């Protein structure tokens, strides 16, 4: 699980071009959107595609995203349970 | 019809030009087939949250726009007009590569929405919160001149009073490889200071953003008056001189009235003969200047030439590194720009001291 969390942090920093953010700056329970990391709706689309591409998870209901993408912890838990690759 | 004035200038180029207090004081003698841009500190101009999705062309343009706006003393302009030959090339390459690499699956929106030609105009408008006329001209090496002409017409007719006009192009790695493959780029690195002695085919490429605030009201910071701009998609060599004389004549000027002619020669042995017709012909006894050995060639490099012309008139000095000959001018009142790329998209642009 820790390796997955590390992987998610690295992906978010690289793919979303968070230039001044390091892996150590993101706590596992930090909110990713809003006041936390400050991600927005376009980032949410990037994350949805990442779930499909990297882990074979297709989110059919966009409303699910709000809970799944709450933090690194919630993302890692959902991926661990639903991943097909 | 009102006169049109250049009230401020801003340049992000392969030289340190973003500081308007200087005028080519230090020459960076690049030795390459692509001249890299000297970047300002973009964090001063763009909030980090916005900057993270911006490719080079957008960042250069927003920095140049804000410098131009600040120098003009304005908080806002009536309109934004952008010229770009290739648009946001890096993001175009990014999303097209993703299409191929992922077999048209797993496509994300960011690169696509940032890839269009009018992304720059849109992003500059968002940064400035300008809700006015916003237009982007894409016409190869006449892109900037097209933007300039539109601005001139709008200002002359008093449809707008202040317009931010700019030219921007960025290097895209894949596109550059294609341009090299078809022989548009020099095969070997050339020193900037020796470009015109290379006598080889192809150009040295570059990138940059040059923005200007144009207005129909003169102010203390005014650099020069934009008298005229004329474009030709094709222009036979045999008609070049008489076409130029007709252009000058339409502004009641003759060859002898031109104090310096700024030519867009790029060191390409195959196409610089157009410039030679003028420099060895009617302008044989006129002060001549080149600039693409310091900016590199790109579709809107002529906007850098425009920057050079405006700065020359305002400062009444022509830096030694751009001088092609040494005919002493008593002053720089009328400055003419002539540009073409690979014998297409010719333009004459005329600036006057005011």
UniProtKB/TrEMBL annotation, chain A:
SUPFAM superfamilies: ACP-like. The keyword Phosphoprotein applies. Residues 2-83 form the Carrier domain. Pfam families: PP-binding. Gene3D superfamilies: ACP-like. The keyword Nucleotidyltransferase does not apply. Keywords: Phosphopantetheine, Phosphoprotein. This is Acyl carrier protein.
From TrEMBL, chain B:
It comes from the Bacteria. One of its GO terms (biological process) is fatty acid biosynthetic process. GO terms for cellular component: cytosol. One of its GO terms (molecular function) is 3-oxoacyl-[acyl-carrier-protein] synthase activity. Transmembrane segments: none annotated. Residues 46-218 form the Beta-ketoacyl synthase-like N-terminal domain. It holds the Pfam family ketoacyl-synt. Keywords: Transferase. This is 3-oxoacyl-ACP synthase. It comes from Pseudotamlana carrageenivorans.
């Amino acid at each position: 699980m820790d390796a997955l969390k590390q992987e998610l942090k690295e992906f978010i920093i690289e793919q979303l071009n968070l230039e001044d953010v390091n892996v150590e700056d993101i706590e596992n329970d930090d909110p990713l959107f809003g006041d936390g990391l400050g991600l927005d709706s376009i980032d949410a689309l990037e994350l949805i595609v990442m779930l499909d591409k990297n882990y074979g998870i297709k989110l059919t209901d966009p409303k699910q995203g709000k809970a799944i993408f709450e933090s690194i912890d919630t993302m890692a838990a959902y991926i661990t349970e639903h991943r097909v690759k | 019809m009102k006169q049109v004035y250049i009230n401020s200038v801003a340049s992000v180029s392969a030289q340190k030009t973003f500081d308007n207090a200087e005028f080519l004081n230090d020459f960076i003698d690049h030795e390459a087939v692509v001249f890299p841009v000297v970047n300002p500190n973009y964090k001063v101009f763009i909030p980090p949250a916005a900057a993270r999705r911006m490719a080079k062309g957008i960042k250069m343009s927003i920095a140049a726009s804000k410098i131009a706006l600040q120098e003009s003393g304005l908080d806002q302009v009536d309109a934004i007009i952008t010229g770009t030959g290739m648009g946001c090339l890096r993001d175009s390459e990014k999303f097209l590569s993703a299409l191929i690499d992922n077999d048209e699956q797993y496509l994300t929106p960011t690169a696509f929405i940032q890839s269009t030609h009018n992304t720059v105009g849109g992003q500059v408008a968002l940064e400035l919160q300008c809700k006015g006329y916003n237009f982007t001209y894409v016409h190869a090496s006449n892109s900037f001149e097209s933007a300039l002409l539109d601005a001139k017409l709008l200002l002359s007719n008093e449809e707008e009073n202040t317009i931010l006009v700019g030219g921007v192009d960025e290097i895209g790695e894949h596109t550059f490889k294609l341009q090299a493959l078809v022989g548009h780029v020099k095969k070997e690195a050339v020193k900037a200071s020796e470009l015109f002695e290379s006598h080889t085919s192809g150009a040295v490429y570059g990138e940059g953003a040059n923005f200007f605030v144009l207005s129909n009201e003169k102010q203390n910071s005014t650099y020069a008056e934009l008298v005229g701009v004329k474009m030709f998609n094709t222009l036979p060599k045999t008609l070049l001189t008489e076409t130029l004389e007709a252009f000058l004549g339409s502004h009641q000027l003759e060859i002898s009235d031109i104090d310096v002619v700024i030519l867009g020669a790029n060191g390409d042995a195959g196409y610089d003969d157009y410039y030679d017709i003028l420099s060895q012909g009617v302008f044989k006894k006129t002060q001549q200047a080149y600039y693409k050995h310091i900016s590199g060639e790109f579709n809107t490099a002529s906007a850098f030439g425009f920057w050079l012309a405006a700065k020359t008139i305002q400062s009444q000095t022509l830096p030694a590194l751009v001088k092609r000959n040494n005919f002493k001018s008593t002053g720089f009142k009328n400055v003419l720009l002539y540009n073409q790329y690979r014998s297409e998209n010719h333009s004459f642009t005329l600036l006057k001291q005011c």
